[in-house]
Amino acid sequence: MIARNAALYPQKMAMKEFETGRSCTFEGLLERAQKIGSALHGMGVKKGDRVGIMSQNSYEYMELTLSVTAAGYVFVPVNFRLAGREMAGVLSDAEPVVLFVHEQYVKTAREIKDEIPSVREYVHIGPPETRPDGWRGYEEMIQCAAPMGWVEPVEEGDLAMLMYTSGTTGAPKGVMQTHLNLYHCGRTCAFNNCIETDDIGFTICPMYHVTASTSFMGPFYRGATNILFQKFDAEALFEAATEERIVAGMLATPMVRMLLDVWPSVKDRYDVSSMKKLWFAGAGIIPAVYKQFIDTFGCILGEHHGTTETTGVTANLSAKDIAKELTDDNLRILESCGRDAYDCEVLIVDDNDNPVVPPGEGEMKVRGLGTSLGYWRKEEQTKKAFRNGWFYTEDICHIDEKGYIYIIDRKKDMIITGGENVYPAEIEKVVNEHPAVRESSAIGVPHPVWGEAIAAIVVLNDGATLDAAELIQYCKGKIAGYKVPKIVHFIPEMPRNPAGKISKPELRKQFGAA
Q: In this structure, what are the phi and psi dihedrals at residue 111, rounded to the nearest 5 degrees?
């Protein structure tokens, strides 16, 4: 796609880093990408070798994501939110031969160097004065390389990226994404969100996460310009909408609420009318908050369900579908993650792997061009999750007569209390409807009689007051008696995993004793 875009739109801006203003054209990107491939070849990197990066979002990060894979090498983005020891675990599993390190992470890279002996070359991203002795400089590496073109021929089934999961159920797993998977990611995002060549896209999710892949690959597939943010900042996004006229991009779930929180105090300074094609993923949004977003900014926000294992989108709830259903007073649509995404087949199946007849409930399984090869060097886990061409998501879902899918909960998070199966999401939905509650999470804690008791962990809205007895009473009558929380803990903020999702394992560790 780099060469195609350079041929079609040579002088068009390919990408721009919002905070610094650094940018390049598609023609310039092609030239630098070829030099990066040439430089890596000169370091002895061979097809299939891994090349890692430790960095927050940056111009270089996006450039490397495209360039390393196009050259036939396997790109390994490392979650910059991990502790040094955790980064070492990911890198020792991936065994990269070259590691690009942003100046912010030089100290960490040096501390874990002995744990990643596979790395032969370190390349420093940042000013020369912060570069350690013996490391190459990023810009110098590019300037000294010959534009040899793509060094290694690439096939669609070749491994392109190892993207590590957030490790909610153990050590992070490296998901093996192919060139076809990444191409599909761009195409399905472009089609699902109606992205056009003249649109301005943006990428504000962290680049180590699959949400960022869908955010920048969609515009890139169309040959559209992409505005990259180093980190999420609500006002910066409003500023970019005003200055750059951004149109399309992805938000992580918490960002939706943050935009709403900031907007009233800044709305007189910004014109965000260009934003027409937004979507979010990561977890569902409370319907009241979703409706508030629509009432504030218009019906411009769709929802994606996706996984790292399927290289992005599996189900898509478009803004167009939302508008139609809201016209028919179907507010429940705001709880759905939509229907099959473009070039993706989704089935809801029962415990015997038979398709559920709508309306009904079961586990979601997915297949399509985005289905990855499985988990890097984890054969048994791959066999369990990937069967007969399908990826089994472990998401328990409801499917209605129109084919809309509603995530109920994760299989592994189910609470068994007094012999009854309870999905935490059922409880969280009711708790979150209380006007004093900002967000909540329900977990099972050991109980001598019931096996597990239901505990609700709650974060209140700023300035709100609520006690446990009041919340328990509020829940009664709204859900079955055995689903009503028996224990309530109030905390200032939720622990989150590196992907930004609420960490139930951490909550169980903290509140696991009744």
A: -70, -30
Average pLDDT over the chain reads: 94
Domain of residue 71, residue span: 26-154
Residue 307 near residue 324, CB atoms below 8 Å: no
Q: Are residues 402 and 419 in the same domain?
A: no
Is 148 a member of any domain? yes
Specify if 10 maps to a domain.
no
Q: What is the pLDDT of residue 150?
A: 64
Same domain, 330 and 389: yes
pLDDT digits (tens, 9 = 90+) for 23-74: 999 999 999 999 999 999 999 999 999 999 999 999 999 999 999 999 999 9
pLDDT of residue 438 exceeding 70, the answer is yes
CA distance 314 to 363: 14
The predicted pLDDT at position 51 comes to 99
Residue-wise pLDDT for 162-212, tens only, equals: 999 875 556 789 999 999 999 999 999 999 999 999 999 999 999 999 999
387, 478: one domain = no
Cα 145 to Cα 17, 30, 35, 39, 236, distances in angstroms: 24, 14, 5, 5, 36
pLDDT digits (tens, 9 = 90+) for 345-385: 999 999 999 999 999 999 999 999 999 999 999 999 999 99
- In the chain, the number of structural domains is 3
Residue 432 inside a domain? The answer is yes
Residues 356, 375 within the same domain: yes
Tokens of 431: 């708790």
Please give the pLDDT value at position 514. Answer: 46
95 and 140 fall within a common domain: yes
pLDDT band, very low/low/confident/very high, at 143 (cuts 50, 70, 90): very high
**323 and 459 assigned to the same domain:** no
Residue 492's contacts (CB-CB under 8 Å, 6 or more residues apart) are 459
Q: For the domain that residue 135 is a member of, what is the CATH number?
A: 3.40.50.980
342 part of a folded domain: yes
Q: Residue 45 and residue 97: Cα distance in Å, rounded?
A: 7
Q: How far is CA 40 from CA 8, 64, 179, 298, in A?
A: 27, 11, 19, 47
- d(CA 484, CA 417) in angstroms, rounded, equals 11
Residue closest to 235 by CA, chosen among 259, 199, 271, 207: 259
> Which of 355, 375, 410 is the endpoint of a domain?
410
CATH at 289: 3.40.50.12780
Tokens describing residue 405:
């899918």
Residue of 26, 29, 31 lying closest to 12 (CA atoms): 26
Written as one string, the DSSP assignment of 257-268 is HHHHHHHHHHTT
Q: Are residues 111 and 199 in the same domain?
A: no
CA angle 56, 59, 65 (to 5 degrees): 80
Supply the pTM of this predicted model. 0.87
The neighbouring-strand residues paired with 303 are 280, 317
